[in-house]
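Checklist before submission:
- one chain only
- standard amino acids only
- sequence pasted in full

Submission:
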Amino acid sequence: MKNSIVFLLIFTISFANANNIKFKDINGFYEDDLNLAFKVFKKSCIKSSKKELFKEVCENVKYTNDAEEFFTNNFTVKRLVPPKENPILITGYYEPLLKGSRVKTQTYKYPIYKTPKDLITIKNKNEYEHFKKYKYKAKLVDGKYVPYDTREEIKKRDDLEVICYTNSLVDLFILQVQGSGRVLLENDEIINVSYSNQNGRKYSSIGKKLVADGYISKDKISLQSIKKYLKENPNRINEVFNYNESYVFFKETNNRATGSLNVPLVSKRNIAVDRKYIPLGSPVFIQTTNPKTKESIKKLVIAADTGGAIKGKNRIDYFYGFGKEAQELAGLMKEEGKVYILVPKT
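Returned file contents:
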């Protein structure tokens, strides 16, 4: 109960500068497919109902099939207002498909690693507060905790357990950024790999680095332009990737892309957020723009994931799903938007 009280207090503080608003004032809310959003929310309740904040509303889903009535009766709306100098930026992510092999070959030589056995999550956080910037990830060296290996150091090791190998270092890096994906093996079997752990190092955007160094202009930066640059400059791949010391480890699963809430993600109905500002499980109405067609996106989505780059109250990552179109749109997506959080009534 103590943890629940602390959670609710942090949640209240997070919205100290947010504005109350009525459902009728949200442009596009009643025109959305609220029934689909309701189905996704019900699935999220499998996990979020364990939190005090969602316990009652997740119980209430059992007693109605009217999505509009459910959301309007059980939630109040607050518009998330970011600092004036930092408007809300909505990017996109997707579930990539890689090619792979269970055995290492000349073609398939880049390992997708399981969580290392020597990776430790420090439990006594008060005693090791200086490890906070490493997300309390460490390993033991001569009986003492030290920060876990960087990306560059991990790539030099040959003692870690491998799920499979892929044929592209670029695709492997993208998989780590997206957090989950599928691998088509040589025998035509497709396996699912999802986020298992991380080395505790801070995520650093290689896109921002390439812009800062003058290799790609700010208005042209995208997943597509980054891949093009790396294809044209293969000798710089390791240098560019090592700038981001963060390294993600995976596990093989039976499910397709699964977010931090540990429920399968639904294309264009889930988002990744900074949970300090938007609790996982929250219904969130977003207003933004399709990066390719420039058509409006006005949808009620469910916060079910997090990401190393998604930090602060002005960042949202929109899940586009699986396939070529999802990859294209996610790679191009960097649109400003408005965000409305549906907060359970208490």
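Reviewer check: The chain has a mean pLDDT of 93.
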